[in-house]
Design a protein that fits this description.
Bound molecules: thiamine diphosphate, magnesium ion
Number of domains of chain B: 2
CATH architecture of the largest domain in chain B: 3-Layer(aba) Sandwich
Structural class of chain A: alpha/beta
Order of helices and strands of chain A: HHHEHHEHEHHEHEH
CATH topology of the largest domain in chain B: Rossmann fold
Distance between the termini of chain B: 53 Å
Radius of gyration of chain A: 18 Å
Order of helices and strands of chain B: EHEHHEHEHHEHEHEEEEHEEHEHEHH
Shape of chain A: globular
Radius of gyration of chain B: 20 Å
CATH class of chain A: Alpha Beta
Largest interface: A-B, 29 and 32 residues
Strand content of chain B: 15-25%
Strand order of the largest sheet of chain B: 3-2-4-5-7-6-12
Oligomer: heterodimer
Strand content of chain A: 5-15%
Number of helices of chain B: 13
Number of strands of chain A: 5
CATH superfamily of the largest domain in chain B: Thiamin diphosphate (ThDP)-binding fold, Pyr/PP domains
Structural class of chain B: alpha/beta
Helix content of chain A: 25-40%
CATH class of the largest domain in chain B: Alpha Beta
CATH topology of chain A: Rossmann fold
CATH architecture of chain A: 3-Layer(aba) Sandwich
Distance between the termini of chain A: 30 Å
Number of domains of chain A: 1
Amino acid sequence: MTIETKTCAADGTDRSDLIESLREKAREMRKDIVRMVGAAKSGHPGGSLSAADILAALYGRVMRHDPANPTWPDRDRFVLSKGHACPVLYAALAEFGYFPREELMTFRRINSRIQGHPDMRKTPGVEFSTGSLGQGLGAANGMALAGKLDGKDYRVFVMIGDGESQEGSIWEAAMAAAHYKLDNLTAILDLNGLQIDGPNAEVMGIQPVADKWRAFGWNVIEIDGHDLAQILDALSPEHRTAGKPTMIVARTVKGKGVSFMENAVDWHGKAPKPDEVEKALAELDAA
Amino acid sequence: MPEMLATRKAYGQALVELGRENPNVVVLDCDLSKSTMTNQFAKEFPERFINMGIAEANMMATAAGLAACGKIAFTSTFAVFATGRAWEQARMSIGYTRMNVKIAATHAGVTVGEDGASHQANEDIALMRVIPNFTVIVPADAVETRQAVHAAARHAGPAYIRLGRADVPVIFDDTYRFEIGSAVVMREGTDISLFACGGMVAEALKAADILAAEGISAEVVNVSTIKPLDVETIVASVRKTGAAVSAEEHTIIGGLGGAISEALAEEYPVPMKRVGIEDCFGESGTSDELLCKYCMTGPNIADAARIVLARKPALSAVEGEAGR
Ligand SMILES: Cc1ncc(C[n+]2csc(CCOP(=O)(O)OP(=O)(O)O)c2C)c(N)n1
Ligand SMILES: [Mg+2]
């Protein structure tokens, strides 16, 4: 199955059907995140749930990829730099056919292909191994540079966290991407406002973050990271600027979709107990 | 069953004690204070707790600057980030300058568990022990951790303290006295020396029990200071036993086993085997599953001891040949 890159249809009905189907995908992914982390009794639900709509759009519509051929040289690439949020990546990969959904229940178990942090050598569809924050953007730059060197037209997408943005290496990569005019690169900042020790603003302020990226020479688009229409627009090829990398600053809610996890620092890296899993699944179904 | 307590928890408590004793003690962390347990110090001394955000390299340089102005700076994050991301800052701004900075890193080794390979520091002892001026300490349990943290604070200069995530048995009682640079014979024996550090000390004691049941007398030595290495105690032990096994939750390259091999090769060569991670990365799983899969349990140490013992007579035969 090849999912083609198409700019969103101008025609309203088509587009609302598309958005409705992506919303369903995101709902299923969120349910898988909750189930997977609950079954593993460990993992990171908060930052996975905040990214679900964006990954649904990427894998369900925007990216050119073929789950039957994960190493296809011309595929678009997605790097999850904030690797701890891999439940959302695994949910997307399973949802779009890279491996059986039942395998999600082996998350974090010994001998599993579905590791606690993304492992490109173990999981089909994982483009790059991450988990140590601050390295994925540099790797994405390398993939974008290789695309230019090889004259290929694939796009490279990368998601970073707002806490992760405190790493100096993020800004080294920011400078390099602009310097080398990587307009085949689109980064997404999952601006959920929280990290482990508290809100970004209390731990180490990152604002005004969109201005920082602009000052570094990027094309910056600010969106609501749960509004699929805005997500699709921002990710579409025509919103790129020739000669500049694009940064989509996506305002999100950590734990989105599960009331007791929303905006709650504690749910960064805590697994829901069986009754909490049930409650979360019921809420996601009702939404 | 012995009491179980993670060394990082003992660290958190010891920091609070230090904070009460000495107003010059400051603590830095990189968004992991709930896991490294520096949050206890942060709660009691908020003005002396400095959260650096997720920026380990900058934390080390900042700690060096604080130390340059007379502070005793403790820095904490996971061992893989403390010694990996920030290694050159540790070398240049802390080691070279002999700054009074203590890097107390938690979540070392595969007992990190489910987070998997990216988070399991199996190389940190090697990385830190090659930096001149660094003292490197791997406490075996909560009691030794508390004392090591106090000793490191009294010691003027750079120190690396390696701590774990998982609960480990408390093997020392309150009469135990830790001293930087002193290895401690925990059980005397005559046939083979088992040198261990960190959580592997408890496993080495299990191995000694297994071997004792087979009539093999194993000496167990807790080598909690990797640097400066207590060569005297180590050589005295192998002079008696003529065989050695090292055990560490770390790669067998460059850590405790590496340090002991170097010392024995020069001072008193004996047949030896190193138990630890065999030049590979870890993976997700529970701590116990991983210790089993990567062969770092009491029975694995006993296996290594049997292999080394089988080589003992062969070597003395060679010595006999050479002597003739
Ligand atoms: C280099 C590094 N330092 C520290 C950590 C530990 N850690 C994992 S997630 C996290 C917080 C991340 O916050 P953020 O980027 O905002 O992620 P999100 O809120 O999207 O989950 C930290 C400190 C790490 N994985 N890598
Ligand atoms: Mg965040």
